[in-house]
Amino acid sequence: MKIEYEPIGVVRSPFVESEGTPVQPSRAKNAAGAVELLPEFVEGLSDLDGFSHIILLCHMHKTAAYRLKVTPYLDTQPRGLFATRAPSRPNPIGLSVVELVGIEENWLSIRGVDLLDGTPVLDIKPCVGEFDQRTELRTGWLKNARKKTDVADDRFEK
Amino acid sequence: MKIEYEPIGVVRSPFVESEGTPVQPSRAKNAAGAVELLPEFVEGLSDLDGFSHIILLCHMHKTAAYRLKVTPYLDTQPRGLFATRAPSRPNPIGLSVVELVGIEENWLSIRGVDLLDGTPVLDIKPCVGEFDQRTELRTGWLKNARKKTDVADDRFEK
Question: Which of A76, A87, B22, B44 is the most exposed place for a label (fewest CB within 10 A)?
Answer without folding.
Answer: A76
